[in-house]
Each structure stands twice: as C-alpha cells, then as structure tokens.
Amino acid sequence: MLRTRLITGAAVGAVALLALTACAPRDSSSAGAPAGVETAELVTSTSAGTAPVDTVTWSIVEGEPATLDPASSANLIIPNLCDNLLALQPDFSVEPGVAIRAEWTDPTTFVIELRDDVTFWDGTPLTAADVVYSLDRNRSPESQWFAAFALVNGIEATGDHEVTVTFNAPDSTFRDALAGGGGAVMSAAFGAEAGDNLGTSDGGLMCTGPYELAADGWTPGNEIVTTANPDYWNGSPLVSTLTYVFVSDASTLATALTQGEIHGALNVSPSSRAAFEGDGAGSLIVGPSTASYSFGPATPDGPAANPEIRRALSLAIDRQQYIDTVLSGLGEPQRTIVPPFTFHELAAADVYQAGYDALEAPEVDLEAAKQLVDGSGEDLSAPLVLAVPAGATEFKNTAQIVQSAAKQIGVEIEINEMQASDFGAMFYDPAAREGIDFVATQGYLETPGVLGYPSLFMLPEELGGVFNWSGYANDEVTAHMQAARTATDEQTAAEEFVAAQQIFAPDMLQVTLAGAYQLSYVNDELTGITTSVAVYSSPWALHLGGQ
C-alpha cells in the first residue's frame, strides 16, 4: 500500500489532490515486489501553502554543508537563499527570474536584462555590477560551474540593469545553466568584505532570495536558521523561520519525520519506504528526477577499461530486481545516463526522445554476457574491485547485486566499502583510485540540457572529461559533442548530441542501473514545496506554508 499525496497538473496551476491507498504493481520478476509508481503519477510540486507558519524544521539528509557559497556547493539550502538569473520550474522548464530577459543577440553575444525591483536582504538594490561579480566568479577553475563558463570571453555591465557576456564560440548550454547555481547572484560589496570567509558560518553571505541567513544563524554542528525575506520581489514566504538540521541516518530520520519531530526532508531514503507508508505525521511524495545509479571504470588499464566487460556486466544485471531491492520500487529502468526528464521541456525534445528510444533497453542475457567475457581477451583470474561509500544502504545493496550478477558470468567482484573522505578523494586524486576497478555513484543533472553530465565521462580531460578515468577516446563522439555545444540552433544541437549518444551509449562509460525518483517526506499540516529534481536549482520552499 502506497500512502502518498499526489498533485497533478501543478505546473500549469491545476490543483487536484489525490490520496492514494494503493498503486497497481508493475510486472516484477519476484513475488511480493514493492508496488511501483507510474510516470504519470509523479508529482512535480504540491499546492501552495495558504496559512502562515511560525517555524518549520527541515532535515538536510546529505549532512551539514561546508559552505553556502553557490560557486562552491550545490546543497539544498542555497536555492532558498540565493536567486538564480533564470527560474527553473518544478517541471524542469525555464522561465524569467531575476533576469526578465536573457538571450543571444548574435552567435557569440549574450545579453541579460535585470528586473529593477530586486533588493538584497540588507535593502540595497541588485545592480548589473553584482551580476558581473557573481558570474565572473564562475570563470575560475575553482568554481563548480566552471565548465558552463568555459567558452566565455568577457562579462561586463552595459547598463544599470544590463549585463553582456561575450563568447569565444557559440554555446548552446549557457542559457539553461543560468537557471542553476551558475546563475546565482550575490552582493559584490558583501563578497569583497567577506573575502575567503564568504559562505561560511563566520562570513555569511548576502543574496536576494526568499529566505535570509539569520544573524548568527549558523551554529556549526547543530543547525542553520533562516528567516523569511519580507521584501522578496516574488512574494514573502509564509514560513517565518525555516531551520535546517542534519540527520543523515535513514532510520533515525524516518522516526523523527513520522513522529513529527522534524517537519520534512528531501531525498529521503527509499529504504525507509515501509516506515513512511505506515501511520505517521506526514506523507511520502514521489516526484520525477534526473538522478540515476550507475558504476563505471576507475582505471585506464585492465578488464574494467574494456567496453566488452562492461557490456557483459550490464547484460547480467536484472534491472527490475535492482529497482525492487535498492530503490524499494521507487525508480524506473533507464537506457543511458541522460534520462528523458532532462530534455522533455526543451524545444527539440522530440529529437532527444527519438534518440533515447532508439537505444537498446537494458535486459538480462547471461549467455550473451558470457560470450562477451570469453571473447574479451582479458585476464579475470583476480577479482575486480568495486568501490562504494561505507554506511550507505543503497550503495551496499548496489554492490551486492553487481557482485552476484558478475559471478553468474564468471567475473569475481570484490567490494571495497570506503570511508567518505577516502571515497571522495578518488574524484580528485588519481592516487586514491589505485587498486580500484569500478566506482559506483549516484549522479543527477540539476538543470535542463543533455551535454554536461556525459561530457564528464566521454570527453578528453582537457575538454571537460574530468571523470574519464578509463582514457576513453572516440574522435566521432568528441566531434559530435563539441558540435552540439557550439550549435546556434536547438535542432542542430539535438541532432549532434543524439549522434554522439548513439556511439557512446553502447560503450557504457557508466553502466546505468536505474533512474531514481525524487523522494520527499512532508508533514501533513504543510504543503507548497517543489518535489522534482528542480529542488537543486530553485527556491523549493518559497510557497511552503500551512494547509
């Protein structure tokens, strides 16, 4: 029985509340498999709150952030504090935001026109100079949004409320990036004064968003307190104080949520589904996402770097078993690392969808898998090491499923559960990957667009392939990906990407295991949050309030 509150048509303003007592289960290979959720039932947002609320306590399941600086972190607190130039909607479409216009005036010139009624929390007006400061910070390799600014030649204020960005070449990805953290705006004056402390508990920050960081509101190791911005240009929130706490353990969090001690959380664990379906203070809300679980090679040498071994492992893994076991039924099979929700609102969505549908659907074929292993020419006398983060139920189960499937085709997998610091080091330090063959991850795309995520794995390192640890090099893929980025029309960009995808998808630089739905748990006395993956880039608590 799935007890979840679904709202349909929220993106176009319709409000239809449906309390489901059951969902018809999908076909499953195992008896007693958890009920699934049909794509049409996924919820992008709940109806806006109507009643003021004094205090809401919200848990950040990923733990306490190191910083609230948008250039250095993508945590879920920042979107409620710092506006982006363009506004990402719950359905993953992009609308005007702080910028009322952001368009190309020629193939290498992009002009941003700002609203004239936006102020920072301290009452000072947002100016073009603040936007230049904010965007220019992302031109540093230290910014996590650096790749989105790789083709930028210059950024300057060309009016009190106008900013002009010039490029070395056309960039089809730039506009949508401004709907994410790459387009976050901050006060230039405050940033200059804060210096290296910007975004920390000591330095604070100054933004224009619906909630502001309370004075001395960040108590490290305990909580971050934010308060409603009464002068917010898009309407002041109904929640006076939104306090973030950091409960990461899935079982502990489920207890606190169902007992009403914590009012809500995003990205709750699917392993807690049974607890959330029982009697409790709130409801589990299932929304669309771009997130997926996968594993990929961590070395340019040996069996893991061989596409035939990766294809064999893919053919050995039962995706429905994976969804039922790891995601408790709250996910769907996915053909490659770029899922349809990423592009379904783009102008060329039909081209992207046709390209996606043309890819082979994942299936189990043990005989074909064994033939690939036998014909690979690889020495498989030693086990292949699969690294996963320790303490994460979903990743532990992922590793065990991969290990069991591999055994059926004569491949031995050794699981290495690594502490968080060691696991994280692998993404930046090649020495930390020594002795590791595969790494299991969960990834997502925080803004519309198809190029950013696969580029990390498919392109040469000098072109942005920072996670291309196997040394994958395909000139056709590189040419099509680069042509897609520098295309001046959306149709051409889509056609070029689909041509690249047709080549790189079978090579499985990431063996995609499943797409994971966005899971939120909210107290039944509250409503008005974004419940899709858009939470990473939009003020998801702007409309939060009482029922």
UniProtKB/TrEMBL annotation:
Signal peptide start-end: 1-24
Start and end residues of each Solute-binding protein family domain: 94-440
The keyword Lipid biosynthesis is annotated on this UniProt entry: no
Domain of life from the UniProt record: Bacteria
InterPro entries (UniProt xref): Peptide/Ni-bd, SBP_5, SBP_5_dom
Pfam families, A to Z: SBP_bac_5
Name assigned to this protein: ABC transporter substrate-binding protein
Source species: Leucobacter alluvii
